[in-house]
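retry 2 of 3: previous attempt timed out while embedding nicotinamide-adenine-dinucleotide. Reduced batch size to 1 and resubmitted. Inputs unchanged:
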Amino acid sequence: MERIVHVPLEGRAYDVVIGPGLLQHAGQRIRPFVTRPRVAVITDETVAGLHLDALRAGLADAGIEMVSLALPAGESTKSWPQFSRAVEWLLEQKVERNDVVIALGGGVIGDLVGFAASVLRRGVRFVQIPTSLLAQVDSSVGGKTGINAPQGKNLIGAFHQPTLVLADTAVLGTLSARDFLAGYGEVVKYGMLGDADFFSWLEEKGPDLASGDMQARVEAVARSVQMKADIVVEDETELGNRALLNLGHTFCHALEAATGYSNRLMHGEGVAIGCALAFELSSRLGLCSQEDPSRVRAHLKAMGMKTDLSDIDGSLPDAETLLELMSQDKKVVDGQLRFVLARSIGEAFVTADVPQEVVLSVLQDALADRPQA
Ligand code: NAD
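retry 2 succeeded.
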């Protein structure tokens, strides 16, 4: 059932191995990359309680000893204080230039540990062992690492590609339904932005995937990773097509800011709502058919996902304020808002040519559909 996606970046190529039970064999996979049989693992407290022992045993099987640090779970860990704690701990553990650091966890741990590895002794290698669906299909591949600043999300960081990614699809079994579906938001995004067949496949197989069908999970993660790898290889540092991966993100970032980056809206949930809004905007601009946004929303709803602004609990600011929050996004270039829009499901493109009044009308109508407080 195992799949391998190769990421052929020149001089920094690596494999993403996808399948159930990889933790148990992590040692064999990592052995070729270590010069001495010792690795430093950083994880979060939730994942540590669930999966650290399995990793320890899997490494020990290949004679690799492990030291570990568990940081608090959650987005607030992507901060200077936890970052310096991680870096200083790695130095205390005497991690050397040729050693390998392992990130075991979701996107928060992957981003923070990857960034720590990029600056430690001017760069050490790191292995991603992503444990959330979002991390398996998105954040563990492509080399974007970093932490948040008080001024905004992901504003401090570096490009640092991993040496190996082990996406053990069995560990997805301990994710909460909400975390799983938030990750699914990113899976379905790949179909919407560049692969109509994948979207149709997800319409059919999505419910099996959610209910734990391992074959379907491996297939969905592999197809998502392949798509991300193709885009990253073409445009590693996001000068062009890598921006397609931001489908739904301009709306999502405004909604995340409006909800204070709180538990009211997870990133993947914001992406799903953002994708629905991006298709609505595309349809109003006459770029795609009116059926496309309906089909997108129908699939998200069928999966039990947040789809509309009315699915976000609590109050939201008005449309003008949301638009203002969008223009604070770090992807704004020369003051121009850039959107990923679609000509159809599976055919997205990037444009700065979007009349603000149309964006405003999409937001106004979406807000009007919310029940009055
Ligand atoms: P996360 O790391 O906070 O994980 C979500 C929750 O799931 C956490 O509470 C975590 O403890 C828990 N968890 C993880 N694996 C688990 C498992 N197997 N069983 C039970 N619980 C588990 O968040 P995330 O959703 O994985 O990632 C979001 C982060 O990823 C954001 O900070 C975002 O900016 C970043 N991101 C980065 C990139 C990139 O390219 N680097 C891309 C997308 C998102």
